[in-house]
Amino acid sequence: MNRQRALFAIHVAAVLFGLTGIFGELINSDATVITAGRAGFAFAALYLFMRFQGASILHGINLRNLAVLALAGAMLATHWVTFFISVKVSGVAIATLGFASFPAFITLCERLVFKERVSAQEWLIVGLVTLGLVLVTPSIDLRDDATIGLGWAVLSGLTFALFTLINRRAAGHLPAQQVACWENLFVAMLTLPFSFPAITHIQALDWFWVALLGILCTALSHYLLVASLSVLNARSAGIVIALEPVYAIFFAAVLFAQYPSTRALIGGALMISAIVWSGLRKTQRKPASSAPH
């Protein structure tokens, strides 16, 4: 893969990430069912891809690895469920912008949990993301669905940050496809028991959307991200992935006529600018390993 193909691949991955909320809006089922179905299809696709490559999901796996992957899977399951709840409650734009707060949570967790030094510039980025969230918040009224949905989205961002840090701390020595395969398996195992009986009532068209969500927005996007990182550095990839809310808002406007307010757009622009600035900063720290949103 050359640089042009890598840039194309990472942009396609960003578009697929942006479509996640769109599929969540299209699928006529609850968040737990969507999460279980997505994880199941993603696991199947990743497993078949690894078998095609001649790789085994058991290679290098021990009890410690399984415990870490299970914990990461629990965080990923919580992240997906809360994100899809936000989509159902407040729409794609608010859900995606609220989730975009996760880089700020990564910084806070690194300082509070892992006692890592956080620079003044990183604190400034946290402040800009927080200000962006304040602008995105429709109102302080907890009876407002948009405000409730944003709260779920912010919780989704927090759990995704924890998921990312778990991967970076403990599962980074395993191949990315193998990590994603196991984590999606654990997500399916954790959410499937809570998806009955609703999962038995899904219509054929909804199963089609769930399959696309799992195969395209999870398995394929993860492969494209990993493949592009063989050529691009993490900063370049991160800047492109930061465009996910832009794609999500565009698709939501075209498909569902969901238009965020001017204040929300200003807040979103502030958050995305902070994330891009964070990606542009040269840092000596090892980039976090994570599966796709």
Describe this structure in words.
The protein is mainly alpha-helical. It has 13 helices and no strands. It has helices spanning 3-18, 20-26, 31-52, 63-90, 92-99, 102-112, 120-136, 145-171, 176-191, 204-228, 234-241, 244-256, 262-280. Helix 2 packs antiparallel against helix 5 (92-99) and helix 11 packs antiparallel against helix 13 (262-280). The longest helix has 28 residues, at 63-90. The radius of gyration is 18 Å and the shape is globular. Mean pLDDT is 83; it is low at 282-289.
Task: Summarize the helices and strands and which ones pair or pack.
Elements: H1 3-18, H2 20-26, H3 31-52, H4 63-90, H5 92-99, H6 102-112, H7 120-136, H8 145-171, H9 176-191, H10 204-228, H11 234-241, H12 244-256, H13 262-280
Helix pairs in contact: 1-10, 1-12, 2-5, 2-10, 3-4, 3-9, 3-10, 4-5, 4-8, 4-9, 5-8, 5-12, 6-7, 6-8, 7-13, 11-13
Q: Given the structure, what is the number of helices?
A: 13
DSSP summary, beta strand count: 0
Provide the helix percentage: over 70%
User: What overall form do the CA principal axes indicate?
Assistant: globular
Q: Report the β-strand fraction as a percent range.
A: under 5%
Q: Name the average pLDDT.
A: 83
Q: Radius of gyration, rounded?
A: 18 Å
User: What sequence of helices (H) and strands (E) makes up the elements?
Assistant: HHHHHHHHHHHHH
Structural class of the secondary elements? mainly alpha
Could you tell me how far the N terminus lies from the C terminus, measured between alpha carbons in angstroms? Answer: 24 Å
Low-pLDDT residue spans: 282-289
Task: Sketch the major β-sheet.
Answer: none
